[in-house]
Amino acid sequence: MDTSPAHPAPHHVALVYHDGIADAESIAQAMAAYVRSCGNGREADLFSQKDSAFAGNLGRYDLVIALGGDGTILRVSNICSQKNIPVLGVNLGRLGFLAELQRADWKPGLEKVCRGEYWFEERMMLHVQEERAERILGEWNVLNECAITRGGGMKMVQLETRIDGQPLTTYAADGLIAATPTGSTAYALAAGGPILPPELRAILLVPVAPHLSVERAVVLPEGAEVVIRVHTDSPAVISCDGQHHAEVLNGDRVRIRASDRSVRFVRVQGRGYFYRNITTRLNRNPQPGG
Question: Which tens digit of pLDDT belongs to each residue from 150-169?
Fold first, then answer.
């Protein structure tokens, strides 16, 4: 493998850790000390993921290290996408699909980053817009997925779906997931969708528990626009990356397209890492009683 620097070594680093994980802060402190020890006036600042000062000072950093589970990396990546700042994920959670480094052996990877021996993996995002009549109720940029699901009770929702203005189908289901390739290993995978290569630029539609309607996942090109009109007798729910939740009423529309923003992940593994790691990640799913 070529060990010559591929990118400038980072000089201003932010480390954002999940303060609900017992050893997250101490690992972040150790990583910050290592970055500073690399010399050349390098700076490393620590933030809890709840600290709003991180987002307010975002522009001064050329690298952000996110320490936690996939949820932490999702939140940090979304903020960093606003200014196209690269993210290095450190897995302190269970699966860590988005992470590059692991809790027990982060130092060799961070050493490579400090020498500039890394590459960028660009991940597409989705722009999601909820509409009621002619009003826009909310807009979100998501890295994983947007899911429209039934609210309380057992009754399904009907989701009239159009692609670029043309009818696709009306799903009668518990819900519908619109995911990026990154999100293909998240909720969409649990709903039976395919695993897509992370750098692919496409939109994945996966129904959740469909009844007498289209069961297969659909993969759309990046330039497609998806419009979903919700038909329901009781409020449904829209969830974006599992973080933003809003009520959806009968007749509401959800408009989905590729976002103008994207996430840049820092990678030190070879470019075939995804296929080497995917089976390992999936086999670590805990069993009942285990």
Answer: 987 778 999 999 999 999 99
How big is the chain, counted in residues?
290
Q: Which burial class, exposed, middle or buried, applies to 114 when counting CB atoms under 10 A from its CB (0-12, 13-18, 19+)? A: buried
Superfamily of domain 125-260: Probable inorganic polyphosphate/atp-NAD kinase; domain 2 (2.60.200.30)
pTM of structure: 0.91
pLDDT tens-digit profile of 75-117? 999 999 999 999 999 999 887 889 999 999 999 999 999 999 9
Please give the biggest Cα pair distance in the chain. 64
- 279's CB contacts (< 8 A; 6+ apart) are none
Domain residues of the chain, as ranges?
A: 12-118+268-283, 125-260
222 neighbors 203 (Cβ within 8 angstroms)? yes
- CA 200-137-211 angle, 5° bins: 60
Lookup: tokens for 198: 């992370």
The CATH code belonging to domain 12-118+268-283 is 3.40.50.10330
Q: Are 114 and 142 in contact (CB under 8 A)?
A: no
CA 274 – CA 152 distance, rounded (Å): 37
For the stretch 203-231, pLDDT in tens is: 999 999 999 888 899 999 999 999 999 99
E strands within the chain?
12-17, 43-48, 63-68, 87-91, 101-102, 119-132, 135-142, 145-150, 157-163, 166-173, 175-179, 202-208, 218-221, 226-231, 236-240, 244-248, 253-267
CB atoms within 10 A of CB 253: 18
Which residue numbers are catalytic?
70
